[in-house]
Structure formats: structure tokens, C-alpha cells
Design a protein that fits this description.
The complex is a heterodimer of chains A (169) and B (238). Chain A is an alpha+beta fold. Chain A contains four helices and seven strands, in the order βαααββββββα. Chain A has helices at residues 16-34, 38-42, 45-70, 133-144; strands at residues 4-8, 73-77, 80-85, 88-93, 97-106, 111-119, 124-128. In chain A, a hairpin with a 2-residue loop joins β2 (73-77) and β3. The relative contact order of chain A is 0.16. Chain B has 238 residues and is α+β, with helices and mostly antiparallel strands. Chain B folds into two domains: 7-36; 39-237, no CATH class. The chains are: A alpha+beta (169), B alpha+beta (238).
Chain lengths: 169, 238
């Protein structure tokens, strides 16, 4: 895939509220399950198992998007990229990608960028919350718009000594 | 009705009056700025740079974009913002084109509104003969890093001052060395940032709407831009 151009880490943009609610629910679940407060200790174990267990499970599920972002990064190369995720890495070469959209999502409680990669096989991937997504999008666009090789009248080719020379030199 | 205190009636009227007053003030200030920077209206900028306005609204002000009614109103579902300006000429003997495209479409959904934005602004000088591709970006700008468009390798220019200020990328060492002699003229753009793209036949100064180099900051030195770009194109491609 050529020379490595950089690595794009992830932000918590768009999933911050899930972290907040997830931590609160998971903690309250643990407190309830173990009977750590006087109120919780008075409740029968069966009731605590139900409410505490539900809080813990839902809280952990809500923490999952944050964990996925934490483990997400994209290594970009001259002709491809490796998308590292929580559950493994995905390699995409320039030949796999047909087009892309850079979408900026703005809402009252979330704001993040989405990079939608359209593949030649008809599929697509959405990479959310990357740092510096404009640069990654520009590199991917460059794969489909390579610069033409320079040509002098009659066909430019690097001379044996010194390569290209400015006119008149 | 008579039991309500008088401020229940007065406050909404005062708020409405204040809002209207502020809107009028804002509109007046925009008109004042538009007048103050009238030399950045498309028609006057073209004249100033020795170019001919081929397409677009001659009153569109690149520094005070909100003076344009369409931009100030914003895109609606039925009417997009569409600013498409083109000017061309050869003030220094090299064909020079300035393209500015700003288009925003809006689609309102049930629970979301989608804006589709197209933006392209560049001053382009065309060389007589082809040259190797290259890209130049300022290493630092006041508003962050410049987004590079190509994946070329970095090449030293043999000019330490230029290498410290700019990142030059190309496959051709001889071209990088020549750029080392030409780029000092672009030091005037330190407050805006420089993004040059040589695609093999044309040299473009790329400007952006929200990332460096911003259109107003770069166009503030429009005369320097036209001369420096023409010079680069002439030296690279005859």
C-alpha cells in the first residue's frame, strides 16, 4: 500500500452522553447488587439481582460505543488504509474504494464527523468520530485522482542525470 | 386582564423592538463593511488584478460574504445558495484563472436537516509546458494544519528558511530546489497560510472556507498571489 502517511485516532464526539449514562447505570447496578447502601441492603436479594443486574448490563452496553472509539484508529498509506477496531482490523486498498462522503453531524447533544466509504463491490463502511477527518478524506480522494506524470513536448521522461530540469537550465 | 402587571405587556414589546433594532444594526454594519471593503467585490477585484469577470455576480464580496442576500438568508429547501464566480486574464503573461464555487443545498427531514455543501476556491496559473507534480503547504498557520490533497513525498529545497516555513512534496529534487528560490515571495501569506498545488500543467493556490488558508486572509494579498503564482508557473513550465 506504499508509504505510511499518518495515523488518525478517534474522538469521543457523539458518544459522550453514553459514557456519562453508562457509568452512572453500571455504578448504580454494582451498588444495588452488592447492597452497598443502607437502602439497598434492606432489599431482598432477588429484587436486587433484577434491578442491579439490569442496571449493570445496560450500563456496560452503553459503555461499549466509547470503548469502540477508544480502540478505533486508521492508518493511512499512499494507496490504502488499515481501519483498527475493537473487534479486529480491516484493510482497504485504493482499488476497493469507489467514492466517499464526509458528513458532519450536529445535534443538541452530539457533534461528530462520519466518513462514509463506498466500495466497488456495492458495500459501504462508515467510520465515525475520527480526528482530522478532512485530511483522511483528501488522501482517499487523491487515490482516485492521481496527478498525471509530467510530460515535456514529445513525452517527458527523466533525463539520465539529475531528473527533471527547469526550462532554460 | 386588568390584574396583570404592566410589564407583562411591555416586556414582549421591548424584546421585539430590541430584536428588530439589532437586526437593523447588523444589516447596516454589514453594508458598511461591504462598502469599506468594496475592493474585494468580484467586479472590482477582477479589475484590480487585471482579470476579466467571466461568470458570477460582480457585487459578491469575498471578504464580507454576508452582504450577499442569498448567503445572509441561508439555504432553504426550495432555494439553494449558489455562488459561482470565474475570472480570467494574463496580467503577467501567464494565463490566470480565479474560480470560486460555494453551493449549499438544504433538505429538511422529519427529525434532521441535511446541508450539502460544495466549496472550491482557487487561483490557477497555467504553464506552457508540463512539469512534475508538487504540493506546498505552510507548516504552521494561525488556525491549524493545512489539509494536503496529494500523497507525494517530502523533498528538501536546499533553502533552510523555506524548508522551515513550508513543506514541499514532489518526486523531483530539481523542482524542489527551484521552489526553494521561488517560495520566499509567498512569505507575505504567513498570517493566512500557503497551499500550492502543481498538477503537472497548472499551479493553484487553494483557499478554503473553514480551514487554512481562509479565503479572506489569502485574498487580502491578492496582488501578491497573482504575481507569485504567475512567476512559479513561468519558471516551472516556461
Amino acid at each position: 500500500m506504499g508509504r505510511k502517511l499518518g495515523t488518525h485516532g478517534s474522538t469521543m464526539g457523539g458518544v459522550g452522553w453514553t459514557l456519562y449514562v453508562g457509568v452512572l447505570l453500571a455504578l448504580s447496578g454494582i451498588v444495588s447488587l452488592l447492597g452497598l447502601t443502607a437502602e439497598a441492603a434492606k432489599m431482598p436479594l432477588a429484587t436486587r439481582l433484577g434491578t442491579g443486574g439490569a442496571g449493570l448490563v445496560i450500563g456496560c452496553l452503553l459503555l461499549l460505543p466509547g470503548l469502540m472509539r477508544l480502540k478505533q484508529s486508521v492508518e493511512v498509506f499512499e494507496r490504502g488504509l488499515i481501519w483498527h477496531r475493537l473487534f479486529g482490523a480491516k484493510t482497504l486498498t485504493a482499488a476497493d474504494i469507489q467514492g466517499l462522503k464526509l458528513i458532519h453531524h450536529t445535534g443538541r447533544n452530539r457533534q461528530y464527523d462520519e466518513l462514509e466509504l463506498q466500495l466497488k463491490n456495492g458495500g459501504s463502511y462508515s467510520i465515525n468520530g475520527l480526528k482530522n477527518p478532512e485530511q483522511l478524506a483528501a488522501y482517499i480522494r487523491a487515490w482516485s485522482n492521481p496527478l498525471p506524470a509530467a510530460a515535456a513536448p514529445g513525452g517527458w521522461a527523466p533525463p539520465a542525470a539529475g531528473g527533471w530540469r527547469p526550462p532554460g537550465s | 386582564m386588568a390584574n396583570y402587571p404592566i410589564w407583562v405587556l411591555i416586556l414582549p414589546i421591548a424584546a421585539l423592538g430590541y430584536t428588530l433594532f439589532m437586526r437593523t444594526q447588523h444589516k447596516k454594519k454589514t453594508q458598511d463593511y461591504d462598502q469599506q471593503y468594496a475592493n474585494f467585490r468580484a467586479g472590482e477585484l477582477a479589475q484590480r488584478l487585471g482579470l476579466q469577470l467571466l461568470k458570477g455576480d460582480p457585487t459578491y464580496n469575498f471578504l464580507v460574504t454576508h452582504a450577499n442576500q442569498s448567503v445572509a438568508r441561508g439555504a432553504t429547501d426550495s432555494k439553494a445558495i449558489n455562488i459561482d464566480i470565474e475570472m480570467a486574464g494574463a496580467p503577467f503573461g501567464v494565463p490566470l484563472t480565479f474560480r470560486y464555487l460555494y453551493r449549499v443545498e438544504r433538505e429538511s427531514g422529519f427529525n434532521s436537516t441535511t446541508y450539502k455543501t460544495w466549496f472550491n476556491c482557487r487561483m490557477v496559473a497555467t504553464a506552457k509546458q508540463a512539469f512534475p507534480p508538487f504540493e506546498v503547504t505552510s507548516r504552521n498557520t494561525p488556525i491549524g494544519r493545512i489539509v494536503r490533497e496529494q500523497t507525494l513525498p517530502e523533498a528538501p529545497t536546499q533553502n533552510p528558511a523555506v524548508d522551515a516555513e513550508f513543506q514541499v512534496t514532489t518526486h523531483e529534487p530539481a523542482l524542489a530546489q527551484l521552489l526553494g528560490q521561488l517560495l520566499p515571495e509567498f512569505s507575505a501569506f504567513a498570517s493566512a497560510g500557503v497551499h500550492l498545488l502543481g498538477d503537472g500543467q497548472q499551479v493553484s493556490y487553494v483557499m478554503n472556507q473553514s480551514t487554512a488558508p481562509l479565503v479572506p486572509s489569502a485574498l487580502y494579498f491578492a496582488e501578491v498571489m497573482t504575481h507569485a503564482l504567475s512567476n512559479v508557473a513561468q519558471r516551472l513550465g516556461g
